[in-house]
Amino acid sequence: MTLPQKHSAKGTTIFTVMSALATQHNAINLSQGFPDFPIDERLGLFLHEATKEGFNQYAPMPGLPILREAISNNFKQRYGLDINADTEITVTPGATYAIYTAFTSILQAGDEAIVLEPAYDSYIPNIEMNGAKAVPVALSAPAFNVDWNKVKAAITPKTKAIILNTPHNPTGAVWSREDWNTLADLVRGTEMYILSDEVYEQLIFDGKEHYSVLQHEELRQRSFALYSFGKVFHNTGWKMGYCIAPPALTQAFRRIHQFLAFSVNTPAQYALAKYLAAPQSELIWKMMQQKRDYFLELMRDTPFTIHTPSGGSYFQVAGYEHISDMPDMEFAKWLTVEYGVATIPVSPFYSNKKDDKLIRFCFAKKEETLREAVSRLCSVSTAFRGQTR
Ligand SMILES: Cc1ncc(COP(=O)(O)O)c(C=O)c1O
Predict the structure, then answer these.
(1) Helix (H) and strand (E) counts for the chain?
(2) What is the pLDDT of residue 386?
(3) Alpha-carbon distance 282 to 205, whole Å?
(4) According to the model, what pLDDT value does residue 278 have?
(5) Which pLDDT does position 381 carry in this prediction?
(6) Angle at CA 52, nearest 5°, toward 275 and 229?
(7) Taking the CA of residue 358 as centre, how many other CA atoms within 13 Å lie in the half-sphere pointing to its CB?
(8) At 383, is the pLDDT very low, low, confident or very high (cuts 50, 70, 90)?
(9) Residue 330: its pLDDT value, please?
(10) Which ranges of the chain does DSSP label H, i.e. alpha helix?
């Protein structure tokens, strides 16, 4: 018997591979994008309260009304946007699920979807699982801006969607308002939908602002905006997220969602609703910016090259041209085994495995973790400086 190949990705994801290697070699794990510090105690207490208060049975299919209301109020406060909690918000088990569901609501066999690379690794398999074709367009290194001429050239009559991510994993690049205007010019008059992966929206640095697709009135009409509570509240293991889309797209999204997950963890929804309604602070981005700054400061003493400081997200990419000319996969494995620091090579974020000789560090970690990791990276310099490799 043969099993169907639903997508072109091979083996397990690079995140699983590197995290497993980190465990095997007792390495400090700066690879996968998850924090190693505790969540806000209030959030944990709300979860406990939810189970005590009896929020233990299936939630309504679109999500608990109190959570959808809390999301709507939060977007009003932060962006001044009016988002209808009943017709435009759907709670999901994480953003990865929301991305798949959004693609499945709009794609049919033979359609094309543009993916800006390097890209989060679920995008292309999700497009292919719908019988559609992924059309990769490379961002321009080292700043990883969008090359709009390339995007324009990739659009055909079959193009049904484009997926983008800002702030960007793995590079930390951030879209400007101008980017959105250019995208609007390109998609006007086409049948294209937009999937805007904004999971790191609140993790943005140096006084930059996150521009959401929802703030672009014209684009909003054809867009699914996708969010993850895990990334902003540092509880990635809860796997909670949501999709915001105009009513017609939300209906299409829910037509799929009701037969995939149907509904989402009720106590977690209750806890997140209470937490969103509680006084929020600037801590989310401030804390992450401090971590990025601390990490960059420490990295000055290593032989790694920081081409562009991360503008947002959990991540910083770095070059290793002063250390080695190994391919990035090999280099990341070598660093894990020999120096006990696990990172993620950037080439697996490209469908053609383009190797810019960059690795990605996750700095969403305790200061002591970052300090210990970078002290090991400093010894890389001692070991190899002056040697030819
Ligand atoms: C760009 C991007 N989108 C989506 C996700 C997934 O979010 P979730 O854990 O809520 O599924 C991640 C997680 O690493 C990500 O980096």
Answers:
(1) 14, 12
(2) 43
(3) 12
(4) 84
(5) 67
(6) 30
(7) 24
(8) low
(9) 96
(10) 14-24, 41-52, 65-79, 95-106, 123-129, 148-154, 177-187, 217-220, 229-232, 247-257, 266-277, 283-299, 328-339, 367-384
User: Mind listing the pLDDT tens digit for each residue in 285-338?
Assistant: 788 999 999 999 999 999 999 999 999 999 999 999 999 999 999 999 999 999
Q: Tens of pLDDT along 49-90?
A: 999 999 999 999 999 999 999 999 999 999 999 999 999 999
Report yes or no: 315 and 204 within 8 Å, Cβ to Cβ: no
pLDDT band at 387 (very low <50, low <70, confident <90, very high): very low
* Dist. CA 314 → ligand 1 center (Å): 11
CA 32 to ligand 1: nearest atom: 14
Ligand 1 atom closest to the CA of 33, numbered from 1: 14
Number of C-beta neighbours around residue 322 at 10 A? 13
Q: Are strands 28-29 and 315-319 parallel, antiparallel or unpaired?
A: unpaired
Q: Is the CB of 250 under 6 A from ligand 1?
A: no
CA of 226 to the centre of ligand 1 (A): 9
Location of structure tokens 């959570």: 67
Nearest alpha-carbon partner for 173 in 213, 210, 219: 210
pTM of the complete model = 0.96
d(C-alpha 253, C-alpha 121), whole Å = 21
Domain ranges of the chain: 14-39+282-384, 55-277
β partners of residue 359: 318, 345
Q: Which two tokens stand for residue 167?
A: 């702030």
Task: Output the CA 168–ligand 1 centroid distance in Å.
Answer: 11
* 241 CA: nearest ligand 1 atom: 10
The DSSP annotation for 157-190 comes to: TTEEEEEEESSPTTT-----HHHHHHHHHHHTTS
The matching CATH number, chosen from 3.40.640.10, 3.40.30.10, 1.10.10.10, 3.40.366.10, for 55-277 is 3.40.640.10
The backbone torsions φ and ψ at residue 55, rounded to the nearest 5 degrees and listed phi first, read: -85, 70
Answer yes or no: are the C-beta atoms of 200 and 234 closer than 8 Å: no
Query: Which CATH code of 3.40.630.10, 3.40.50.10470, 3.30.360.10, 3.90.1150.10 fits the domain covering 14-39+282-384?
Result: 3.90.1150.10
